[in-house]
Amino acid sequence: MTTHRDKKPAKAAPARKKRGALMVHERLRDAIQWLRIEPGTALDEVALAKEYEVSRTPIREALLLLANEGFVQFLQNRTTIVAPLSLHNQAAFLDTFILLSRGLVRAAALNGGADRKEFDAFVKAYGAKLEEGDLEAAFRAQLDLYRRVATLADNRFLEKYFVEAQDASVRIKLLYFFPHLDAAGRAKAIDHLAKVADAIVTGDAEGADAAVSRAILFELEVIQRGLGPRFGHRMSLDPGGPEAGDD
User: Fold this and answer.
1) Cα 37 to the center of its chain, rounded Å
2) What is the rounded distance in angstroms from the CA atom of residue 151 to the CA atom of residue 144?
3) Contact 96, 169 (CB under 8 A)
4) pTM above 0.85, yes or no
5) Model confidence over 161-220: pLDDT tens digits?
6) Residues 44 and 94 in one domain
7) What does the alpha-carbon distance between residue 175 and residue 127 come to, in Å, rounded to a whole number?
8) Could you give the number of structural domains in the chain?
9) 42 - beta bridge partners?
10) Pfam families attached here (predicted)?
């Protein structure tokens, strides 16, 4: 006869397994997203299991979740790598991101409820960390402001897809936006975020729409500059000759 005591271990095991996989997914995703593990890096299941102090089963489950989100890739030779950054769909992504952002800030401004002190604190933290050169902390402050905006929009569909789009932009902005901001660029970035925040706090839907559009286009301009050649296009093919473009 099966007793109540006999049933307990069978029920407890799946719960531990689920927690392990979700824990690994969250921590590994964060490490990949914030470039603590670089794009293209091979992921060894045995090493990951040792690092996270779990068996290989939660590691495999976490990797499957990350693959579905586009953060890792499974190669034909059964190697798993951090997904390389790809620009082939960036135009479609940016169209989607701008549309989601405009809809989100409009909804938040129209709904009201934004607290001036809270939003000023986000902008202040963003500016302070940018000036200190702590790019990750600055970016997290910016993300925190927009996630707060997402909750104020009171639209679970906008919130869900906007947050996903924000997450998808983290690696490219860490590589090609924040490191390429000079003093003038930092001042512009802070001003753009302050104007988005101010329009939402004052309930100005049109102003919020325009401000977030300008903010994203500014980021795109900096990213494009970061992706461009720095000096190769100015080199002459004639050794010892003048650089291309010189008079």
Assistant:
1) 14
2) 11
3) no
4) no
5) 999 999 888 999 999 999 999 999 999 999 999 999 999 999 999 999 999 999 999 999
6) no
7) 19
8) 2
9) 81
10) FCD (PF07729), GntR (PF00392)
